[in-house]
Write a structure and sequence with these properties.
This protein is α+β, with helices and mostly antiparallel strands and about 350 residues long. The protein folds into two domains: about 70-160, Phosphorylase Kinase, domain 1; about 165-340, Transferase(Phosphotransferase) domain 1 (Transferase(Phosphotransferase), domain 1). It has helices at about 35-40, 80-85, 125-140, 170, 180-200, 220-235, 235-240, 275-280, 285-305, 315-320, 330-340; strands at about 1-5, 65, 85-90, 95-105, 110-115, 145-155, 155-160, 165-170, 200-205, 210-220, 245-255, 260. Residues about 15-30 and about 45-60 have low confidence and may be disordered. GO terms for molecular function: ATP binding; metal ion binding; non-membrane spanning protein tyrosine kinase activity. Keywords: ATP-binding, Kinase, Magnesium, Metal-binding, Nucleotide-binding, Nucleus, Transferase, Tyrosine-protein kinase. Pfam families: Pkinase.
Length: about 350
């Protein structure tokens, strides 16, 4: 049998065969010590597939890498209308349309992303597969939108993901910017999602409000969550400030279409408003730092510093250390944002 090989698969999980080998390499985890130290401070004063021990590779069914990547039209199956009931359109992007759907069998709600146009054989096919590969390797993490499955139908790509009932951060800040307490929760969640992505030697490369989503938990769970986190994150004072909210928000990183490996980077530039100048100059020597910059400038925007410039003098100032202070934030938080950028 043949199947695609996911280029983002960690070496420890690769299914090796006699004709194929890969160089082993270590990991470089995201360094978030300075961010965590800030969040933890009290601010009240101001290739082997798994085999059983008694088994051998020869006794297992052999799976071969396809001689070339399997195209989407080679994997077409009809699932969408048979398995899902479409409820509404919840998002439209450059690449696709996202539907809120109910699975007819399990009755649960999912977000299903469908490419706007047939992508099989087009320039968008690689990006579509890239998103699936990244999701599949990353698996489940509280701060990354969960992936369930993907398939091709009529040469369109469909991706079944977790439904985030809080919508995107971009939609949320249209009504009101985030307070400092909300920003701390947001930063704590997204930095954990980034740490997880980076620990797999991957970088997001398109972090921005449109690609950060949230789920809403009733405020009655706040005491439970606060108790769980009391000894772990030192965020009691922040949760106290959020008690007046109706819901406790969990932020999740989504849209992995630009994800690439730091070991063999194939960078497709994302939104220039959120990218550091080094990426636009094709300097890919520190891609982890590029994601931190994107997070920093996203913090700046959602705190009230937007809309962000696409070019011109203001664009360059934000990348040369000239980050204006946001009056609603503390001196410490303003300094943290500037350091990230």
């Amino acid at each position: 049998d043949t199947a695609n090989v996911n280029p983002f698969t960690p070496d420890s999980l690769l299914a090796h065969n006699k004709k194929r080998c890969r160089t082993q390499f270590g990991r470089e985890n995201l360094n978030t010590n300075s961010v965590q130290k800030y969040l933890l401070t009290d601010r009240s004063d101001e290739d082997g597939a798994w085999l059983p021990e008694d088994s051998s590779a020869d006794s297992m069914r052999e799976i071969h890498q396809a001689p070339k990547r399997l195209a989407l039209h080679d994997t077409n199956i009809s699932r969408f209308k048979r398995e899902f009931m479409q409820v509404s359109v919840i998002g439209v992007g450059e690449f696709g349309v996202v539907f809120q759907c109910v699975n007819r069998l399990d009755g649960c709600i999912y977000a299903i992303k469908k490419s706007k146009k047939p992508v099989a054989g087009s320039s968008f096919e690689k990006r579509a597969l890239n998103e699936v590969w990244a999701h599949a390797v990353l698996g489940k993490h509280d701060n990354v939108v969960r992936y369930y499955s993907a398939w091709a139908e009529d040469d369109h790509m469909l991706i079944q993901n977790e439904y985030c009932d809080g919508g995107s951060l971009h939609a949320r800040i249209k009504d009101q910017c985030l307070s400092e307490a909300e920003l701390k929760i947001f930063l704590m969640h997204v930095i954990e999602g980034l740490r997880y992505i980076h620990s797999n030697d991957l970088v997001h490369m398109d972090l921005k409000p449109e690609n950060i989503f949230s789920t809403m938990n009733p405020v009655t769970r706040l005491t439970e969550v606060q108790q769980q986190c009391r000894d772990e994150d030192g965020m009691d004072s922040v949760y106290e400030e959020l008690r007046k909210s109706e819901n406790l928000v969990t932020y999740k990183i989504g849209d992995l279409g630009h994800v690439t490996s730091v070991k063999e980077p194939h960078v497709e530039e994302g939104d220039c408003r959120y990218l550091p100048k080094e990426i636009l100059q094709e300097d890919y020597s520190n891609l982890f730092k590029a994601d931190i910059f994107s997070l920093g400038i996203t913090l700046y925007e959602v705190a009230g510093g937007g809309p962000l410039p696409k070019n011109g003098p203001e664009w360059h100032k934000l990348r040369n250390g000239e980050v204006p202070c946001i009056p609603t934030l503390s001196k410490d938080f303003n300094e943290l944002i500037a350091l990230m950028m």
